[in-house]
Design brief:
The complex is a heterotrimer of chains A (248), B (360) and C (303).
Chain A: E1 4-15, E2 18-29, E3 33-37, H1 44-52, E4 59-64, E5 67-68, H2 74-80, E6 82-84, H3 97-102, H4 121-134, H5 149-162, E7 167-171, H6 179-195, E8 199-203, H7 207-213, E9 216-221, E10 224-229, H8 231-236, H9 238-245
Parallel strand pairs in A: 3-8, 3-9, 6-7, 7-8
Antiparallel strand pairs in A: 1-2, 1-4, 4-5, 9-10
Helix pairs in contact in A: 4-5
Chain B: H1 8-24, H2 29-52, H3 60-76, H4 81-85, H5 97-126, H6 132-150, E1 161-162, H7 170-197, H8 199-209, H9 211-216, H10 221-247, E2 249-250, H11 252-256, H12 262-273, H13 279-295, H14 303-317, H15 321-329
Antiparallel strand pairs in B: 1-2
Helix pairs in contact in B: 1-7, 2-7, 2-8, 2-10, 2-12, 2-13, 3-5, 3-6, 3-10, 5-10, 7-10, 8-10, 12-13, 12-15, 13-15
Chain C: H1 2-13, H2 15-46, H3 53-69, H4 74-100, H5 105-127, E1 140-143, E2 148-151, H6 152-174, H7 176-186, H8 188-193, H9 198-223, H10 231-245, H11 250-271, H12 276-299
Antiparallel strand pairs in C: 1-2
Helix pairs in contact in C: 1-2, 2-6, 2-9, 2-10, 2-11, 3-4, 3-5, 3-9, 3-10, 4-9, 6-7, 6-9, 7-9, 10-11, 10-12
The chains are: A alpha/beta (248), B mainly alpha (360), C mainly alpha (303).
């Protein structure tokens, strides 16, 4: 299990004069669920955006499966199999759930002629299967924009799954979700990790959720890496506790 | 679902109407011919504007480009273009029947192809732009086309070009161009039916709904955008080539690149009928064209003021359009399913209880 | 082509001509800068891209021209045009702009485009399609043995444009309303929460812009000419200026306005006046292309 799939070394990023990330290093093991925590404004989402290619980084290196990706663009990185979901859920609102799924199939090998192909039966079957997996099968013909927020979040997760990513970066998957749904969602995330073999890097504010899922947790504060370790170590780490209580 | 079939019945009916119209109402052949042109305008504008969410103010560029390309080809095949267009020309130039039709066929095809090539070329400029910048950039492309043609002596500059004269009786000429424009409109509609049923339709809808998400999912957004723009350009180029020959005289600002008439009609018709729907542009074109033909002459010079006011009124008060309004009112009829409004359902209702059995 | 090369060689052989063109360009550019500032104001504060900007200028021009025909000095046209345009701006804001301000960007763009068509056609009906100009009775100065000639009206126009621009900038900085406008531009929600009547701010901004256009139009008709359909050219010109500079960048907008004036003088001299409009549009495309490349570089690292 000592196989790093994402390796960040000394990544720095600042916007104007504001330093969002400074010398951040982080490793995600293949097949594992890794957590990323930190108080608000500690630079977690900036780090996510740096990894998936929304903006260039100032210095450092980001490697995905051994390949330097800090210069690649968003679509190219997505096609390599490194996918992200958004903190504010994003789905295609005016299309049905099933159509949302159909258009989210992997585009890695898409050729020019694939633009004009019809929805293949196996794609639809797979889409329906995954919609059932997240519990939206009954709603597959509904307009996605008319679903509730929690359901949209599940749909976005299912869309990510049908894209067959190697690594999935989830930005606060449980934020804004009805507490009664959270257990179900954790279960789905764990199963996607175990059954589909998807490596995950998760930003999460809900400590119970992340301690329950992740095998390793990184904690950011003020744009710098404060601590890293197993959940039990992080829970006891005085620096982390101080950061959250504002003593830092 | 409605988007997966080609609707052979509706299309057959359309074919019937198109063929019967000039036979039943021979007095209105030209007006109906222009109506088919309007349908081509509206439907091709909607590919980008409605289905993909990129509101272009410059689609007319391809219409004019096709028109000028066909003119140059048709004349250039047999004569020197510069000589033909020069104001000092005294000889009367005649095209034989074979020359006319050979030139016309070749000119129309090259017109479409040239417009498509120009679309690929301009896509490098305009598709990095979003929202209002895209609209202004495309408007710039269209105005640039008009201005370049207006200052280029070789193609007649602002004085324009007299097209080769149709070798036949006026009535034959009318029917000839009628069926060309109808044929084009029919092909465009069948093609778009098919196109929207493929992945292409889904992809451009996805770009419309959330382009950043589509990029994050790895969709080849640029490829789709460029192709959509090229498809629209190809059909507009052919339309321009046919229309140039139909009017018999082309000039840059009012016929080839009319940024404030045809160009605005396109958008207006789509908005009137309903953006992003298949039949919306067609309905909008019919309603707009009929109203325009009936009332135009009564405005006594105030037509364009009325047009401007109509734009403002539609944009401000009736933007979802006729078909869009019907869809909002009766979504089920259009195969759209809206989740019932209410509270978040309990976990068990959507199969997310702590230990569900899953789907397998 | 030979003509173009000939014109360039004239410029190379007689440097003094360059100076003449440069001065003329700067004098005309001051008017562009003024109107571009108005466009940037509405753009920044209300997020409305006013495609009727150039047509507002034309209205201002025709008002001054009409006054000139009635024997009133065109210079007096400046305040009159400002007042009338303020009124027109108010009516348009009430009837159209206030209803599209919260909608998507294409809506406001298309609505102002509709307004532009109405204005163009209205002017065409009222004044006919000919170009018109109003001349204040001021002499033409010549320097360097007649090689540089500068119409005094251009200097007057320049001074007036600068004075107006300074007045507007001072107003924005010092007055209560100016501060409210700037606050709304930065964050309209926060401004509302703090008790600023943003509706009033929007209305005022739009009217102010219209008045600025009125003044610019009065100057245009004095130093140049007006024609019902020239408005589109002005709108595009102003968009080029604002897009090149970025709408939040006031010194940039003014500098780009002057730059545009100089560019057009040289371009017009080298290529011939008939290419003027084509030149502006090509410049727009060039600016948009460059901007796009910049955006690309900001979003994605170089490959």
């Amino acid at each position: 299990m000592n196989d790093a799939i994402i390796e960040l070394t000394n990544v720095s990023k600042s916007f104007g004069g504001v330093i969002a990330n400074h010398d951040v290093s982080l490793t995600v093991q293949r097949g594992a669920i890794t957590g990323l925590i930190g108080p608000n404004g500690s630079g977690k989402t900036t780090l996510f955006n740096s990894i998936v290619g929304y903006h260039p980084i100032d210095s450092g290196s980001i490697r995905f499966e051994g390949r330097e990706i800090s210069q690649l663009r968003v679509q190219d990185i997505a096609r390599l199999g490194l996918l992200r979901t958004f903190q504010t859920t994003r789905i295609y609102g005016k299309m049905s759930c099933l159509q949302n799924m159909q258009i989210s199939v992997p585009h890695r090998k898409a050729r020019f002629s694939d633009m004009f192909s019809y929805g293949r039966t196996e794609v639809i079957e797979r889409a329906e299967h995954l919609l059932a997996f997240v519990g939206l099968y009954e709603k597959r013909f509904l307009r996605a924009g008319s679903l509730s927020f929690g359901q949209q979040k599940l749909l976005e997760f299912a869309m990510a799954l049908i894209n067959e990513p190697t690594v999935l970066l989830l930005d606060e998957p449980t934020a804004g979700i009805n507490p009664t749904l959270i257990n179900g969602l954790i279960d789905r995330l764990k199963r996607a990790n175990a059954e589909f073999g998807i490596t995950m890097l998760i930003i999460e504010h809900n400590m119970r959720v992340i301690m329950n899922m992740a095998s390793k947790i990184y904690c950011l504060a003020h744009g710098e890496m404060l601590a890293a370790g197993a959940p039990s170590e992080i829970q006891r780490d005085q620096n982390v506790i101080d950061a959250y209580l504002g003593a830092h | 679902m409605s988007r997966t079939s080609l609707h052979p019945l509706t299309m057959g009916l359309l074919l019937l109407v198109g063929i019967a119209a000039p036979l039943l109402f021979p007095a209105y052949t030209n007006q109906v011919a222009v109506l088919w042109l309007m349908i081509v305008f509206a439907s091709t504008w909607d590919i980008l504007g409605g289905q993909m969410g990129y509101n272009s103010l410059g689609n007319i560029f391809f219409f004019g480009a096709g028109m000028y390309t066909s003119a140059v080809v048709q004349i250039g095949l047999f004569y020197d273009v510069g000589m033909y267009t020069s104001g000092a020309r005294t000889t009367h130039i005649v095209f034989t029947t074979t020359q006319y039709f050979a030139g016309f066929a070749l000119g129309t095809i090259t017109g479409g192809v040239a417009a498509a090539l120009l679309a690929v070329a301009t896509s490098w400029i305009v598709f990095g732009l979003r929202g209002p910048y895209f609209a202004i950039g495309t408007l710039g492309v269209a105005v640039a086309g008009a201005e370049l043609m207006a200052s280029w002596e070789w193609v007649g500059a602002a004085a324009g070009i007299s097209m080769p004269v149709f070798p036949g009786a006026p009535d034959t000429q009318k029917l000839f161009f009628y069926f060309l424009l109808f044929g084009l409109a029919f092909v465009v509609l069948v093609f778009l039916r098919w196109l929207y049923a493929t992945n292409f339709g889904l992809a451009i809808n996805a770009i419309r709904d959330d382009e950043e998400k589509a990029e994050a999912m790895g969709l080849h957004t640029r490829r789709y955008k460029r192709t959509a723009w090229t498809i629209a350009a190809f059909f507009l180029g052919i339309a321009g080539a046919i229309f140039g020959n139909m009017t018999g005289f082309i000039e840059p600002r009012d016929i080839a690149f009319p940024t404030t008439t045809f160009n605005i009609f396109m958008i207006l018709m789509v908005l009137l009928g309903g953006k992003g729907t298949f039949w919306g542009p067609v309905v909008g074109a019919v309603v707009f064209h009929v109203i325009k033909e009936v009332t135009w002459t009564y405005f006594l010079g105030w037509q364009f003021i009325a047009l401007g006011l109509l734009i403002v009124i539609i944009v401000v008060y009736f933007q979802q359009g006729i078909v869009g309004w019907l869809m909002e009112k009766y979504p089920e009829r259009f195969g759209i399913h809206i989740a019932p409004k209410g509270k978040e359902e309990p976990a068990s209702a959507i199969g997310l209880a702590p230990h569900p059995e899953g789907a397998k | 082509m030979e003509q173009v090369i000939g014109n360039i060689s004239v410029l190379a052989a007689m440097p003094i001509f360059n100076l003449g063109l440069l001065i003329d360009g700067l004098l005309v550019g001051s008017i562009f800068a003024l109107a571009a500032y108005g466009l940037a104001l509405v753009w920044g504060v209300m997020n409305v891209k006013n495609l009727a900007q150039g047509d507002f200028i034309m209205i201002g021009g025709y008002i001054t021209w009409t006054l000139g025909r009635m024997g009133i000095d065109p210079l007096l046209g400046v305040p009159v045009a400002m007042v009338v345009l303020w009124g027109i701006g108010w009516v348009l804001y009430r009837t159209v702009i206030s209803k599209v301000i919260t909608r998507d960007l294409f809506t406001s763009l298309l609505a102002t485009f509709g307004i532009a068509i109405v204005i163009q056609q209205g002017l065409n009906l009222a004044f006919g399609p000919d170009t018109q100009s109003a001349h204040a009775n001021l002499p033409t100065l010549s320097f360097a043995g007649g090689l540089i000639t500068i119409a005094t009206t251009r200097i007057v126009g320049f001074v007036l444009a600068i004075l107006l621009a300074i007045a507007v900038i001072l107003f924005m900085r010092k007055s209560r309303m100016g501060q409210a406008i700037r606050a709304t531009a930065q964050d309209s929600r926060a401004a509302r929460v703090l008790g600023i009547d943003t509706e009033k701010v929007y209305s005022f901004t739009f009217c102010l812009n219209a008045a600025i256009c009125g003044a610019a139009g009065a100057l245009v008709v004095m130093v140049w000419n007006v024609q019902p359909f020239l408005g589109t050219t002005y709108s595009i010109r102003l968009f080029v200026i604002v897009t090149a500079a970025g709408f939040g960048n006031l010194p940039g907008v003014i500098a780009a306005g002057f730059g545009m004036g100089v560019f057009e003088q040289f371009g017009g001299f080298v290529l011939g006046a008939e290419f003027q409009q084509a030149l502006i549009v090509l410049l727009l495309l060039a600016v948009l292309a460059v901007r796009q490349l910049q955006q690309r570089r900001v979003r994605q690292a170089v490959q």
